Queue: 4 jobs
Job 1
Amino acid sequence: MSHPYVYTMPPFDGAVHLKSRYWIRHHWLPRVNEPQHDFVQRMPAPIRLRELIRTIRTARTQAEEREMIQKECAAIRSSFREEDNTYRCRNVAKLLYMHMLGYPAHFGQLECLKLIASQKFTDKRIGYLGAMLLLDERQDVHLLMTNCIKNDLNHSTQYVQGLALCTLGCMGSSEMCRDLAGEVEKLLKTSNSYLRKKAALCAVHVIRKVPELMEMFLPATKNLLSEKNHGVLHTSVVLLTEMCERSPDMLAHFRKLVPQLVRILKNLIMSGYSPEHDVSGISDPFLQVRILRLLRILGKSDDDSSEAMNDILAQVATNTETSKNVGNAILYETVLTIMDIKSESGLRVLAINILGRFLLNNDKNIRYVALTSLLKTVQTDHNAVQRHRSTIVDCLKDLDVSIKRRAMELSFALVNGNNIRGMMKELLYFLDSCDPEFKADCASGVFLAAEKYAPSKRWHIDTIMRVLTTAGSYVRDDSVPNLIQLITNSVEMHAYTVQRLYKALLDDISQQPLVQVASWCIGEYGDLLVSGQCEEEEPIQVTEDEVLDVLEGLLVSNLSTPVTRGYALTAIMKLSTRFSSVNRIKKVVSIYGSSIDVELQQRAVEYNALFKKYDHMRPALLERMPIMEKTSTNGPTEIVQTNGETEPSVVEPKHPPPVTQPGNQANDLLDLLGGNDVPVIQTTLPTKPPSAGGELLDLLGDLSLSGNSAPPAPTVPVSQPAFLLDGLSSPPLFNDIAAAGIPPMTAYNKNGLKIDFTFERANPNPNIAVITIHASNSTEAEMTDFVFQAAVPKTFQLQLLSPSSNVVPALNQGTVTQVIRVLNPQKQHLRMRIKLTYTHKGSPVQDLAEVNNFPPQSWQ
C-alpha cells in the first residue's frame, strides 16, 4: 500500500484549478482510516538558543519581553511533558538563558538530572551547568545527583570528570561532600594537571562544608607545590590558605613550606617573558597575589617565618612595576603582608611609602584603598605615616565622598601635640566647605583633638567657638556644657570670651549651641563685657541696654529653640545683680510668666518670686558660678588643661573634707572591684558624698584582680588626691606626645562589639599611660546608650575622659573613642576590668571583661 502522504502532482492545466478542492481533500489530506505513524504527532522542532536570544532582544518593552518568555516557557513545558529526548538539551539551554534574565526556571530541575544521566558529553555539559544554576542545598532534588557525580568522577574521560568536580565544588551539600570526598582525594593525587587543579578547588569546598574532613587531604598536599603547572599551583595555594585559616594545627604544619613559597615567588619575579602567564608585563599576577596572602597568614605572630620572607617582600616591593593596575594589586598585597607579619622597621616604612605613592594615583579606588590601609597602620607606625600628612590633607579636597571621609578620619588620627595648630587649621577649613553629612563627625573630631592636645586655653576656646560658628547645628549634645565648663575654669579668659561671644551673637543667631553658650556667658560675665576689661584684644564699648536688647531679641526670635529661650531668660535674670537696669529686667521676666511654653513660664514665675518674696536672697543665688568639675557618664572626672603653652596657673590639688559614710555604702563602694585593693579614683564635690549602689558599684562584683581581697574599710578613703593628676609636677602633661611604638590591642570582641586600645606615652611623666579606646559595631543595628567603665588595682590610678558619643554606629561605619589616663608609678603589670553597657535592638546589654594582656611597652 502506498504511503498516505506520498502523491504525485497531476499535470498542470486548467482543470487542476477547477478540481483543486477535490484534489486537496482526497489526495493531500491523510485518510482517517489509514494508520498514523509516530512522527505524525510530533511537535515542530523548537527554535535554537541563538534565535531565542535574537527574538528577545527585539522586544521594545518589558511587557513584550515577558510575553515572548511566557510563550517559549509554555512550549518548553510541553516538550518536557512529551519526554522529547531529542531536544531536551536545547530546551534546558534556553531555560538557563531565561533564568539568567531573572525569570523562573525551577521546572527544569529534573530535566537537568536526566541530562546528567545521559551518555553524551554535550548533554552532560548542559545538565551540570543547569544543576549549578538551578539547584542548591535547599532542594532535596540535588541528592539524586550524588550517584551520577560519583560515576562521572570515575569516568574514563577527563572532561566528564572535570564537569563532576566543578558541580560538586559549586553546589555540593555537606552530605554529598562526605559521600564523595574519597573520590576527590584520589583525583587530587592523579598526575593529570587538568584534574588536579579542579580537584584542589573542589577540596576547598569540601573543607568549608565539612571541616573535619580536612586531614583527609593532608597527604595529598605534600607534592602540590612542586607542580610546574601554574593552574595547579594557584589552586594548591588556595587550598593551603583555606586549611591554614580553619585550623591552627594546619597553620603550624604548613609553616615549614615558607621557603618553598618564597622560592616560587622569587621565580615568578625573576622569570622572563612568558606569553602563557604574562599580564601587562607581569608574570602571573594572580598566583603572586595568592602566594602573598598565604605568606601573610603563615608569617603572622611567627618570628622565624617572618624572617624568612622579609627579603622576598622587599624584592617584590621594589621590583614591581606600578604603571599598571596589575602591579598596584601586587604591591597592595605586599603592603598588607608586611604590616601583618613581624617585619623589620625599614620594611614597614617602605610599605607605608608605597601607600603614600598610591595617594597620588589618579584611580580613586587606589587612593581609597591607600587611605584605608594607612588608617589601620597609623597607630603602630605613627611617625612613618606622618611623613605623608600633606598628601593626606590634600585628599580632603577630593570630589569623592568616600575618599573625603577616609581622609578626614586619617587626619584626626594624625593629630598630636606637635602639629595640632596646623592640622586644626586644615580641618576647620574642611569643616567650612564640607557637605552636611561630614559636619557632625568633623566637629566631634575637632572637639576631641582640642580637648586632648590644646596648646593653650585661649586657642582651645577659639577653636571650639569657630566650630560652633561654622557647624553649630551639627555638634553633639554635650558640646554646650563642655564649652561652658571650659570657659568657667579659664578665669583669666572670661572677659575675652564674653566679648568674642557677644560679637558672634551680633553676627548670627542661627547656630543654637553657639547662642546658648553666648547667653550663658553674658549672664555670668555681662559686667566684664560692659566694663571693657578685655586685655587680649581691643575692648568694645557696649551699654547695658544694648546687651539686654540682644537677649530680648533671642526671646522673640523665630530661630530660637525653647532651650535657647530658657538660656536667654536665665541670663537676663542673672544680669539683675550685675546691671543697674533692674526695673527693665523685672518687666521682661513678668511678661513671660504667662508664656505658652511651660518651661519658660515656670522659670519666669520662679524669677518673679525672687524679685517679690526673696529679693534679699537674690544676689547670693545669682552670684557667679564656681569653677566646675566635669562629670561624664563613666564617672566623675576633672578636666585639667595640659599639653599647653605656659599657663597662668595650674589647678591646685583639692582634698574634700572627710565625709563619714554609713557602713553599707562604704562596703558597696569598695566592692567595686571585689575589695579595697582595687579602687577607682572618683572626683566628687566636697559637699556631695559619693553615691552608693548603681551600675558602677557592681562593676566587678565580688571578684578581685589581684587575687587577694582585704576587708573593706568603714569609711571612704580620701587620703589620695581627688584627681589622679593632681599633685603631680606642674609641667604640662601633653606638651609633646611621642609615638612610643606601642602596638594596639583588642580588649573585647563579642556580639558584634569590638573594643580596641591604642597607647601613647606622656613625655614629662613616663609613669602615665594614655589609652584611647575605639569601640566599633559590626552588626546591622546601632548600639545606643553606650557606656564604657573601667577599674584598675590599688597600685594604679585611673581617669576616664568623656566619650565622643554614646551611640556606636552599625556596620563599622564609625567608632566611639574615649581617653583613659593611667598612673603607674611602680611600673607594675597593668591589669584592668571593664564593664560595657548598651542597648541593642531595643534590649539592654551588660557585660564584664578582664584585660590582662597589655603590651609590656604600655606599663614598663
Note: The CA atoms of residues 479 and 513 lie 8 Å apart.
Job 2
Amino acid sequence: MENTGYCGESFNSLQSGTSDEDMVEIAGATLDFSSTDDVPPLDRDCSSGASYGGLDGPNGVPKLMDLLDEPVPGVGTYEDFNTIDWVREKSKDRDRHREIATKSKESTWALMKSISDAFSGWLLMLLVGLMSGALAGGIDISAHWMTDLKEGVCLNGFWFNHEHCCWTSNETTFQERDKCPNWKSWAELIVGTNDGPFAYIMNYLMYVCWALLFSFLAVSLVRAFAPYACGSGIPEIKTILSGFIIRGYLGKWTLMIKTITLVLAVSSGLSLGKEGPLVHVACCCGNILCHLFTKYRKNEAKRREVLSAAAAVGVSVAFGAPIGGVLFSLEEVSYYFPLKTLWRSFFAALVAAFTLRSINPFGNSRLVLFYVEFHSPWHLLELIPFILLGIFGGIWGAFFIRANIAWCRRRKTTRLGHYPVLEVLVVTAITALLAFPNSYTRMSTSELISELFNDCGLLDSSQLCNYANMSVTKTNSNALPDRPAGHDVYTAIWQLSLALVFKMLITVVTFGMKVPSGLFIPSMAVGAIAGRLLGVGMEQLAYYHHDWIIFRGWCSPGADCITPGLYAMVGAAACLGGVTRMTVSLVVIMFELTGGLEYIVPLMAATMTSKWVADALGREGIYEAHIRLNGYPFLESKEEFSHKTLAMDVMRPRRCDPPLSVIVQDGMSVEEVETLIAETSYSGFPVVVSHESQRLVGFVLRRDLIISIDNARQRQEGVVSPSRIFFTEYTPPQPPNSPPPLKLRGIMDLSPFTVTDHTAMDIVVDIFRKLGLRQCLVTHNGRLLGIITKKDILKHMAQMANRDPDSILFN
C-alpha cells in the first residue's frame, strides 16, 4: 500500500512537518498535507486511568507492556489523504455499543448515559438542520441584496433590495412595478437621470465594476484563507463519504469563507449557482457539530452517516425540497446509507426546511424557489416535444462534461492555473460586459428561471407575455387562450436565443474556477430557455394550425392548449439530468421546487430520456468526471467491471518486482522494523509466521506501528533498538540481560480479508465496493502471495478502459 502522505519514523513526525513543499494541487485548490483544521489526525484524549508510572514488575524487573491493556493516543486513527477501514470502524462501534449495553444494567447513571447516547444522533440532526437552515437563509437574503446593488440602491435604507424597497411605496404603478421613487439607479444618483446614452453607459460601468469587485473579493478570500472553499464541493464530498480523508475540507475556516464568498460569487453575476456549495456548507456544519459528541468524533464511519444526512439538508435548504434532498443524498452522493441514516436525514431536512421557512428569505411565505401555477393540463401528444427536450438535455449534458473537463485539465496542466485571480477577473469581465445589454442575462439566473417557468396570465406585464390581440374576454380563471405572438414576444425570443448560446458557453469556463460555484441553477437555466423557446413555438404552431391532425380533437380555436412555462420546467429538468445523471431525486426536487405535482410524468419522461442519451455519449456524470480528473480513490458503484482478469494479475508484487515487505510475528527487533518503515512508503505490512513459511497471521498499519513504538520508548523502561517485537499471543522466555520485548498484538488486525490468487477480479471489485476495504491480501494454499489495494484496483480499471493509470493519485 503506497502512502505518499508521510514516511517519518516517529510519533512527533506525524504531527509536525509544515514545509511548503508538502503541497499538492487538487480540484483547483492547493492542499496542504500538514493541515489539521478538520479533526486532529491523532486523538490526544488518553484514558483517565492511564498511568505513566508503575511499569516495573516484581523485584524491579521491567514489565511487558501490552497495548491491549492501555489505549495509545493516535492508534486506530488515519492520516490525511488516506482511506478509512470501514470494517474496523464498524467493529469499533459495535464494541462500544456492547460495552454501553452491558454497563446500562449495572446502575441508573449508566442507564441514563445509554439513553443519552441513543438520543445524541437525533440531537445532532436537530442542530445540523437549524444551523444549515439559518446559514442558507442568510445567504439567500445577502445574495439577493448584493445582486440588486449592482443596479442601484434604496434611499430608505441601503440594506433593502429592490423588491423590498418598493413594497412600501404608494407611488408604484402596476405597469411599472419595478420603478419606485425610493429606488435609485446609479445613473440617477450620479448624473441625475436614468434616460439617455450617458445614463446607460454609467449604469453599464457600475454594473461591471461591482461584478469585478465582488468576484475579486471572493477569489482573494478563498485563496488567502480557505483554498478548499472553491468549486462545488460535491465531488469531494462524494469521495469523503466513500471513506477518503481530506482534513480541513469540512473545517470551520472552510465553512466561514465558503459562506461569505458564495454570496459574493453569486452576486457577481457569474454563471454559477449556490445549490452545490450549500451541500458543502451543510456538510461543514455536520462535521463541526460532530465534535460535540464522542461517538461521532472518534469514529470515522459514524461521522460519514452524519455527513450523508447533512448532504440531504444542503439540498433541502438550497431548493426548499426536503424529500428531494433525502433522495439526492441516497442516489447521488452517499456511499453507505443504512435505514437509520434515512430516518435521520428526513428529520434533519425537515428541521432545515422549517428553519428556512421561518426566515422566509424569498418574501413570498413559500418554501419553494420557483412556485408555478399552470392552468391547463398537458396532453399525451405533448410527450413528443418533452422527449425532444430530453434528447437536447442529454446532448447538452454530454457536451458540457467533455468541454468542462477539457478546460479544467488545461487549467491544471498549463500556466492558466498559476493565475487564478486573473482568470476569475477576466471571466467576470467578459460575463458582465456581454450580460448587461441583454435583460435576460442581466437579471440573476434564479429570476430568469422564475420568469421562464411563469404561465402568462391577465396580470403579467412580462415581455414574454406581450402577445398580440390582447383584447380577450376575461374568464373565470387567470388563464389566457393561445394567441399570436406580438413584436415584444419575437424580441424576447431573439434575446433568449442569444442568452442560451451565452449561458452554454460561459458556464463551461466558469464551473471549476477558484470561487464557490454550483452547477444546478446554470444547467436549469439552459434547459429552461430551450424549453420556453420550444413551448412558444408549439403554442404558435397550435394557434395557426389547429386543424392539423396532431392538434385536432384537443386544441380547438380560442382554447388554452399549450403552456410554454411547462416546457421550460421540463427542459430545466432534462438539462440538469443530462449533466448530473440524476433521475428519481431530480424529478422529486423539480416538483417540490415548483409545486407542479401533476406534471410528474412529463418530468420523468424528459429526465429518463436525457439520462439515456447522455449515457450513450459518455458514461460519467459531471461529479464522477471531476473525481477522476482529481485522482481521488473513488470506486463508482454504477460502473460495471466486465474484464476477465484474476487477482494474481492485479496484486503486488508482480513477477519482476522485489518480494513483498512483511513483518515476522516473533523474530524482528525494533531496529529492523524501523528500518523497514524508513525504507518503504507502504501504509501497512502483512504479519507472517516466518519468511520461509509465509503463513499469514494478520495485518498491521504503518501509522499504528510508528505511534506504538514511539509511545513504548517513552512509557516502557528499557525499550531500545535491539528489543524484540512480538505479535504472538504468548511471549516466549527471553535470554537473561536482554532488553525488555515489545508486544504489539493489540494493534494487529487478526482477520484481514483474503482472496486466493485465482479469484476473479469482478468479485474482488464487488468486495471492495460493498465492504469499503482499503486492502485485501492474496494467498495460495494458505501462503501469502501479495496484496491488492484500492489504488491497485482503480489503476487496473483505468488501464482496462485505456486511461492513464497514473492519474490515480491517492490510496
Note: The chain has a mean pLDDT of 83.
Job 3
Amino acid sequence: MPAPIRLRELIRTIRTARTQAEEREMIQKECAAIRSSFREEDNTYRCRNVAKLLYMHMLGYPAHFGQLECLKLIASQKFTDKRIGYLGAMLLLDERQDVHLLMTNCIKNDLNHSTQYVQGLALCTLGCMGSSEMCRDLAGEVEKLLKTSNSYLRKKAALCAVHVIRKVPELMEMFLPATKNLLNEKNHGVLHTSVVLLTEMCERSPDMLAHFRKNEKLVPQLVRILKNLIMSGYSPEHDVSGISDPFLQVRILRLLRILGRNDDDSSEAMNDILAQVATNTETSKNVGNAILYETVLTIMDIKSESGLRVLAINILGRFLLNNDKNIRYVALTSLLKTVQTDHNAVQRHRSTIVDCLKDLDVSIKRRAMELSFALVNGNNIRGMMKELLYFLDSCEPEFKADCASGIFLAAEKYAPSKRWHIDTIMRVLTTAGSYVRDDAVPNLIQLITNSVEMHAYTVQRLYKAILGDYSQQPLVQVAAWCIGEYGDLLVSGQCEEEEPIQVTEDEVLDILESVLISNMSTSVTRGYALTAIMKLSTRFTCTVNRIKKVVSIYGSSIDVELQQRAVEYNALFKKYDHMRSALLERMPVMEKVTTNGPTEIVQTNGETEPAPLETKPPPSGPQPTSQANDLLDLLGGNDITPVIPTAPTSKPASAGGELLDLLGDINLTGAPAAAPAPASVPQVAQPPFLLDGLSSQPLFNDITTGIPSITAYSKNGLKIEFTFERSNTNPSVTVITIQASNSTELDMTDFVFQAAVPKTFQLQLLSPSSSVVPAFNTGTITQVIKVLNPQKQQLRMRIKLTYNHKGSAMQDLAEVNNFPPQSWQ
C-alpha cells in the first residue's frame, strides 16, 4: 500500500477546493484511506493518520472512528506518538464515553515516567478530560508531582489538581499539605497556577477559606508577592507593556478579594497594598486598566476603608473618560453596583455619567441611563430630569419605555412641587406616550385629581397638547378625562398659573368628537372621549342637545364597549335624567394606598378593583360592586351566587350579574348541584340596561313583620343578629336586617360584612350604617340584605366578616342554616 500523504499536503489540497462539495469529496476520500490503514493495523503511519484526522475534526467533520487509535498511540513508547495520541484524546474523548477509562492505566504509568515531558502530557490530558473515576484513581500521583522540585511539573500538577477538585471536591484535603510551600516558589508559572489552585479551594470550601485565613496566614504571603511585583524593576521575561506579570497580579487580587470578604482582619492587612496598586499602576495601556479594574472590584468587595473606596470610585470615574468603549462600559456597570453603598462618591462623577447618555454605543447608553436614575435625589431632581427628558426625546425606541418608567418613578419620589410633577409627566406623555406603562394613565389622573389648585392649569395644558395631534394615546386619554371632569374650568378661563385661553363649549366638543372619529384612537381612548362628552352634559349649559345627539349616534357603534356606554348614557338621559347630575358629579380626591403587592388607587365613592384581603385592611365605608369577587374565598362547595352590593354611589346592582357566570355550578352545602334551568325560562328577570338597576323607589312598601329573629354569629365579642320582614305583594322577597354589636373594650374598625347564597337565590347587600362597631355594646351597625327566593326553598347563607381589632386584621367565616321557616316559606 502506498504511503499516505502528509498532513501539510492534505491541508494544501483542502485549501484548493473551490466549493464546499469539492472539499467534502476530498475529506471523504481521505477518511476512506485512513480507515483502510487503521483496519490493516499500519503502525508506521498511525501517527500521521491521527494527525490528519484531528485536522478534519477541527474543520467540523466526524472523526470518532479514530478514538481507539489515539489510545494505541498513547501506549506507544515513542514521544511523538504519545504527543499526538494525548492530543487526540483531549479532542475526541470525554467522560461521557466509556473508551476514556481505558486510558487510566496508561496515564498512571506516564505520570511516573522518567521524562518530564511525558509526565507533562499525562498531566495535561488528565486536567483536560479526566472523569471523576479517573481523578479518584490518579489523585495520589498528582499530589506527589505537586511536591516535586521540578517547576515544569509543579505548575502542570497544580492545574491538574484544580480539575481533580472540581470533579471530586472531597479530595481537596489531600492537596492541602502540598499547598504550604507553593507560594514560596520564585517561578512565576508555579506562582500563577498555585494561586489558581488556592482560589478554587477557597471558593469551594468555607472550611478551607477559614483555614487559609487563620492558620496559613495566606494574606501576608500574597501581599508580599504583590508588593514585589509592583516594586520590582524591568524583567523582560514577565514584562507586558511595562508592567511586571499582570496576569499574576490579577489572579492575586482575585484571591485577596475572596479572603477579605466579610473578614475585618484580612481586609485590614491588604488595605495598604491595594492603595499602592491603585496609585502606582500605569493607566495609559490596557494592561494597567485591567489591574486597576480588579483592584477596584477587590476594594468594593472587602471591608475596606472609606478613603480607599473613594479612590476606587475615582478610578472608575477616570475610566469613563477613556476612549475605549469596553472600559467605559465596565466602569458604568461597576458604578451601578456601588451607587447604593457609596452614593456621594459616585455623585461627584454625575456630569461624566450624563455625558455617556450621548454615546453612540447602545450598551453604554443603557448602563448610563440606569446609573443616572440611581443618582437622582431631591437635590438634583430638576437638573437630572432635564437631561433625562432630553435623552428620552432623542433616544432609540427600545430605550423609551424604560426611560419613561424611570422618570415617572423619580418624579413621584422627588417632585419639588405638584406643578413640576404634572409638567414632567405631561412632557413624557407628549414625547413617548406610546411607550409608557399601562398604569401611567391612572397614576397621572390620580395626581391631577389630588392637585385641586392645579385643575384649571392642567386642563388648559392638556387641551393645548392634543390640538390636532392624537398620536400619543395615553396623553389623549388623560386629556379626555380631564376635559370631561374640568371642562367648565377650561371654558371659564380661570387659569392663574399661565395666560388663560378663550375656548367655547362647541370647540371643546369638537376636539372630543375628533378623538372619537380619529383613525389613531383606540377603543379605550374612544371610551374616554365618549364618557368625557357625557360628563360635559352637566358642566356645559348650551350644548346639551348636541351631546345627546352624539351619544345616540354611538348607540349603534360596531365597537361593543362603545355601544354599551352610549346605550347606557342614552338611557340616563331618557329615564334617569333627574339622577344625571348626581351620577356625573366631579370625582373626589383619590386616596393612594400602597399594599404588599402593586400600588393601587382606592376611590372613596366610586368603583375600583378590589385588593386581596390578605394584603391590606378592608376599606371603610361602602364597598364597591367589584368587591363581590372577594366572595370567591367564601366558596365551600358548588352552586353559589355572589353577593351584589348596592350603594348610592357605587356600581348598580345588576352589574354584578356578570359574576353569576364566573362562579358557575357551585353548591354551598356540598350537595349535588341542581340542574340548570332551560335557557328559555330565566330564573330571575334581568333589567335590560345596567342603569335600570338604579331606582330611587323602594323595592316594596308593604311589610309583613312578626318573624322571630336569630343570632347568626357570636364570637370574640362580636355578635351578629338577623331580623326578618316579608312583602305582602311579593312574598318571594325577604328583607334581612343585620345588627352587629361589640362587647369588647375596644372599637372594631373597618368592619365589612359579606354574604353568599346558593344559586337558586338572588341577593342584594345594601350599604352599612357605619364601618366602626362601638365597644361595650354602646352602638350597633345595621345593614340590609334583600333576598329573592322564587322557588321558596330553605334559605342557607355563608357569611364572611373582616375587621380590625386591637391593631390586628381579623377575618372569619360562618354558615347560617337556622333561618326560621316564616322567613322563606
Note: Residues 20-39 form the longest helix (20 residues).
Job 4
Amino acid sequence: RRGRRKTTKTQDNKGRGKKSGRAVSKKEKEERHLCTFFSSGSSSSSSADSDEESLSEGEIAALKEQVEEKKKLIATLRNKPWRMKKRLLLLKEAQDFVEKFEGALGKGKGRRLYAFKVMMTKKLIKFNRDFENFKTACIPWERKIKEVESHFGSSVASYFLFLRWMYGLNLVLFGFMFGLVVIPEVLMGLPYGSIPRKTVPRDEEDSAMDFSVLLDFGGYCKYSVLFYGFYNNDRSIGVLQFKLPLSYLLTSVGIFGYSLLVVIRTMARNANEGGDGGDEGEFIFSWKMFTSWDYLIGNPETADNKYASITTSFKESIVDEQENQKDENIHLRRFLRVFANFLILCSLGGSGYLIYFVVKRSQDFAKMDPKTLTWFENNEVEFVMSLLGLVCPPLFETIAELEDYHPRIALKWQLGRIFALFLGNLYTFLFALFDEVNGKLETEKSIKNATEWALHEYYANYSSFYNTTNVPPPNVAPADVIRGPCWETAVGREFVKLTVSDVQVTFLTILVGDFLRAFIVRFLNYCWCWDLEAGFPSYGEFDISGNVLGLVFNQGMIWMGAFYAPGLVGINVLRLLTSMYYQSWAVMACNVPHERVFKASRSNNFYMGMLLLVLFLSLLPVVYSMMTLSPSFDCGPFSGQEKMYDVVIDTIQAMPAFIGNIFTYVSNPGLIMPAILLMILAIYYLNTVSKAYQQANTDLKKKMQMARDDEKNRRNNQDSTNQVMKDLEDLLPNKSLAPPPVAEEKPLGTTKPGTAGKGVEVQKEESLSAPNPRRPVTRAPGPRGGPPGNMRSPQPEAGRGRGQGR
C-alpha cells in the first residue's frame, strides 16, 4: 500500500505539472529559495553567517531585481487604474517586502553597512517630509485661507491667495526701497532742520502738528523721509560715500523690472500648471461630470450650493441649444445692446470729466488759505474717485440687464467695463495732475530766478561794501528760506492721500454694507414684515471681481507713486496686512456662499494679465517724469540737474575712461537699433515655433481620437461578427464543424491531488490541440464505399457499439 500511495503521489505531481502546462524555471526556484530563506529569519549570528554563505550571486541579483520592482511599484502605484482596495493591499505587500529584504543585499559588514544606509535614507526621507510640512505651516495665513476655502470654495479663496501674493511682492519692493534709499538717508544724510528741504517753513510751524494737517500728510509728514523732497542732492553721503541720487533712480527703475519679472514668471508657471488637455468645446458634459466638483469644500451649506450650481450648469447646457433656436426679435436685441453701450460710454465719459473738474478745482483751492477750506474741499478728489468706484460698477450691472447676455459673457463685459472705468479715472487724474505740475514748474522758474537775483545782489553789495571777494553765505535760518512748490512732493502727496482714502472707503463699505446688513438680517428677521434672509436685503455675497480689480489698480498707484513717495510702499504693506485680517473676518462673519459656486482655475491668468497691463501703464508717467520734466531746483536728490537721468551720465563720466567708452558704444543708436531688430526677430521666431508646437499637439489629439474611434469600431465589428458566427453554429445540426472529442480510458490508480486514498477520480485534461482522429481497431474493415464526398461537410458520427470506448 505504501508503494502504491507513493506511486500515486508521484503520478499526481506529474499530472499537476502537466496541468500547469509549463516547467518551473531556474529563476523561480531561486526566488522560492530566497523567500524561504528570508522568511525563516534566524536570530543568531552563526546562522546568519551560514545563511550568507548559502546565497549565490544569482540569488542576490534576483533579490535586487525584485526589490527594485517593488520600489517602482510603490512609486507608480497611484497611476494604476486599480481599485483602492487592491492598491492598498499591493502597497502593503510591496512595503513589507522592501522592508524585509532591502538590507540583505550585502554580506557581513557590507550587509550591516547597507542596512545602516537604508535606515539613514528612510530617516532623511522622513526629515524631508517633516520639513516640507514645517514649511507649509510657516506659510502666512495658510490656515485662515483654508478655512475660507472650506466654507466658500476655491473661487473666494483665490482672492485671498492673490492678496497674499501681492503682500509678498510689496514686501520685497519695500525691502528694496527701504534698504537702498530710506536707511542710507536716515543714517548717513543730514539731520532734520539742517537744510531748508528738511525743515518746516516758518509760516507752517504753528499747524505742523495738527491732526487734520497730519491726516492730510502735511506739516511734519510733508518734510520727512516719506516724500521725495526730503532727500539731499549730494553725490556721495556718509563715510561709505554712498551715491544716494544714483541709488534712488536705479531703485525706482528696479522696482518696475523686478515686478515685471515676477508677474511674467507667475503667468508662465500658471500656464504650465493649468493645462487640462481638453478643449472647451469638446466633451462638455464629460468635463462637467468629472471635473465640476470642488473637493476643497468642507462646509455643508457650500456643498449644497455647489450641488445646485452643478445641476444648474447641466440644465443651462441642455437648454442652450434650445435657446439658440428660439425665434426672437433680433433688431430689438441689437438696439438694446447698442443703447446699453451708449449709456455706459456716457457714464465713463461723465466720470472722467468729473475727475478732471475736481482736480482743476483743487488747483484753485491750493491757491487759497487752507484755514478757510472745509474737510470736503481738501479731500474732494479722493472722495470723488472712491465714490465713482463704488457707484459705477452696480450701475453698469443694471444697464447690462438690457443686453440679455449669457451670464459668463455678461461677467466678462462687466469686468472689462470696470477695468475701463478704473483705467480711465486713473489716467484722467494723471493728466489733470500733470497740468498742475506744469503750472508748478512755471512757478518754480520764477522763484528760482528771484532767488538767484537776490543772491547775486547780496554778493555784489557785500563785496562792494566791505571791499572783499571772500563773501560768506547769507545768514538765513532754514525755516525762513523762500522755497519752490516742489512738484514731486505734491504728486507724491496726492498718491498717498488717494491710497489712504481708498483704504478708508473700502473698510467703511465692508463695515456698513456687510456687517451692518448682516446684523439687521440676523437680529431683526424675527420681528419684520417679510423674510429678510430670503428677500431684501438678505446676506451679502463676497464680490470677487470688484475686490480683485480694486487690488490691481491700487497696486498700479503704488508703482506710480513709489518714485515720488518712497514711503508709499510701506503704507501699502500695512494696508495689505490689515486687509487680510479684516476681509477674512468680514467674509466669515458677514457673507454667505454664492448661489453658484465656481471652481477656481489653476491657469487663471486673467487677473495677472490685467496686472501686467497696469504695470506697463504705470511705467509711462514715471518714465515721462524722468526723461522730459525738469526736477525741482531746491528739493529732492536730482535738484540742480537739467533732467533726472543726468545723474547716470555724471556717474559714467566719473568712471575710468574705458568703462565710459563701453557705455558710449552700448548707448550708440547704431547698436541699439540692430539689437531691437534682433529681439523682434527672436520673438517672431519663438512665436512661430510655439504655434507649430500647438498645431502638432492639435494633430496629435486628432490622431489619438481617430485611433480610439478605430479601436471602438474594430471592437464593435468583432463583437457583431462573433455574434453572427454563434447564430450560424446554432443553425447547424451538430452545432460544431469538428468531430466530438473521444474520452480516453482512465488510467488505474489516478486520483485527484490532495485526495489520495479517497477514490476521487481526476477529470480528463483538456487540450487546445486538435483531437487525435485515430481510434482503437475493434472490428474488421468493411467494404469500400462509393466515391468520397465533400470533405469539408460534416461527416456522419460513428455509432457507439460495445467495442467503442466511453
Note: The longest helix spans residues 669-731.
